[in-house]
Amino acid sequence: MLPLHSHPSGRHFLQIPGPTNVPDRVLRAIDNPTIDHRGPEFGELGKAVLAGMKKVFQTESDVIIYPASGTGSWEAALVNTMSPGDKVLMAETGHFATLWKKVAERLKLRVEFQEGDWRHGADAEQIGKRLAADSGHEIKAVCVVHNETATGVVSDVAAVRKAIDDANHPALLMVDTISSLASIDYRHDEWGVDVTVAGSQKGLMLPAGLSFNAISAKALKASETAALLRSYWDWKEMLAINPSGYFPYTPATNLLYGLYEALQMLFAEGLENVFARHKRHGEATRRAVQAWGLEILCRKPEEYSPALTAVMMPAGHSADAFRKTVLTHFNMSLGQGLSKVSDKIFRIGHLGDFNDLTLCGTLSGVEMGLSKAGVPHKPGGVQAALDYLSQTSKPYPA
Ligand code: PLP
C-alpha cells in the first residue's frame, strides 16, 4: 500500500508572482490527447496561437514561440540580433534585470549596467543622456524589464523609446514582459519595441514551458548580419515554417492547447478589461499594505505594479519566517525576496486567473500571518481592501 501523505483540504493559494494559478479550463485543454505535430489538425492550432499572440503583444509583426522557459527567450533576443563584443545598455531594476545581464555577459556582449536601487524603474532620462553621448553608436541595444518581478516596479517603455528617438540613436530596444504580458497594457508596435521577450507562466495563465519573442522589422533586419552563434534559437528557421502553422522541431503541443484556451479566455474578457482588473487588484492590495502600516518597496506611485506588490518587512523581522508561517498555517505561498532583498521583503502576486474573492482570501492570509508571526502592524488592511473592492465592483458580465 502507498504511504498516506497528509493533505491540507481546500485549494492551495499560489500567490507568488508566477507561475500563477492555471485555470481549470486551461488544465482540461492541456489534458487532450497529443496529436501529430506534422498532421493537418496541428497546422490550424499553430496558426491560431501565433495569430492570437500577435494580438496580445499588440503587434502586426512576427511572433516566435519556443518550447522553453523565459530565460530561453532572453537568450534568443540577444543571439538573433547581436554580434560578439557588441555593447548593450541595460537598466538595473532588480533581480531579473541582473539575470538578463548575466546572460548577455556569458554571450560575450559588453554590458553597460545603469545602476538602480531596486525601488525604481529604468531611468529613461539617464538612458537618453548615455545614448546622446554615444556619438559613435557603439551601443547596439537598450534592454529593459517592463515589470520587474523581483520588486513590483513597472518601467515606462514608451518613455525609453522616446529617449532613444530624442537621442537620434539607432540602438534596438528590447523589453522583457515575462511578468507583464496579458496583465499590464503592453504595446509592441506603438512603443516601437524591437524585440519583446515573454513567458507562459504568468499573465497567460499556463504552466512554465513556452516563451516568446515578438520581433520588429528592424530587429529582423539586424538578425541578417548578427554574428552570435545560434542554432536552436534561430528566428530564421521558425519564420520559414510558421506561416503554415508548423514548427521546425517538436513543439510543446499540449501547452499550445493550453495557450489556445487561455487566449480564448483573455479575448472573451477583453484585454482592456484584463488590464483594468489587474490595476484594480493592485490598488486594493496597496490599500491593505498601507493600512497595515507596512512599506511598499516601489517608491513611485506611477511605477506601482498591477501584477504584484513587494512589501518591506519591519526591521528585525524575517520575511522568510513570516512566509513560512503563512504557508504552514494557511496553505498559501507568497513570493520570497530575491538576492539583494532576500528575507527583507515578501511579494504578493495578484496576476493571472484572479478575482476579488481570491484577493480577499490572499490578503486575509497575509493579515492573519502577520499576527501569528508577531510582525508589528496595524489591523484593518483587509477591511481597507474590502471597502475599495466593494465600492468599485461591477456586475459580471459587464
Ligand atoms: N524575467 C522576468 C521578469 C521574470 O519574472 C522571470 C521569471 O520569473 C524571468 C525573466 C526568467 O524566466 P524563467 O524563470 O521562465 O526562465
UniProtKB/TrEMBL annotation:
<dbReference type="InterPro" id="IPR024169">
    <property type="entry name" value="SP_NH2Trfase/AEP_transaminase"/>
</dbReference>
<keyword id="KW-0032">Aminotransferase</keyword>
<keyword id="KW-0663">Pyridoxal phosphate</keyword>
<comment type="similarity">
    <text>Belongs to the class-V pyridoxal-phosphate-dependent aminotransferase family.</text>
</comment>
<dbReference type="InterPro" id="IPR015424">
    <property type="entry name" value="PyrdxlP-dep_Trfase"/>
</dbReference>
<dbReference type="GO" id="GO:0004760">
    <property type="term" value="F:L-serine-pyruvate transaminase activity"/>
</dbReference>
<keyword id="KW-0808">Transferase</keyword>
<feature type="domain" description="Aminotransferase class V">
    <location>
        <begin position="14"/>
        <end position="321"/>
    </location>
</feature>
<dbReference type="InterPro" id="IPR000192">
    <property type="entry name" value="Aminotrans_V_dom"/>
</dbReference>
<dbReference type="GO" id="GO:0008453">
    <property type="term" value="F:alanine-glyoxylate transaminase activity"/>
</dbReference>
<feature type="modified residue" description="N6-(pyridoxal phosphate)lysine">
    <location>
        <position position="202"/>
    </location>
</feature>
<feature type="binding site">
    <location>
        <position position="347"/>
    </location>
    <ligand>
        <name>substrate</name>
    </ligand>
</feature>
<protein>
    <submittedName>
        <fullName>Serine--glyoxylate aminotransferase</fullName>
    </submittedName>
</protein>
<dbReference type="InterPro" id="IPR015421">
    <property type="entry name" value="PyrdxlP-dep_Trfase_major"/>
</dbReference>
<dbReference type="Pfam" id="PF00266">
    <property type="entry name" value="Aminotran_5"/>
</dbReference>
<dbReference type="InterPro" id="IPR015422">
    <property type="entry name" value="PyrdxlP-dep_Trfase_small"/>
</dbReference>
<dbReference type="GO" id="GO:0019265">
    <property type="term" value="P:glycine biosynthetic process, by transamination of glyoxylate"/>
</dbReference>
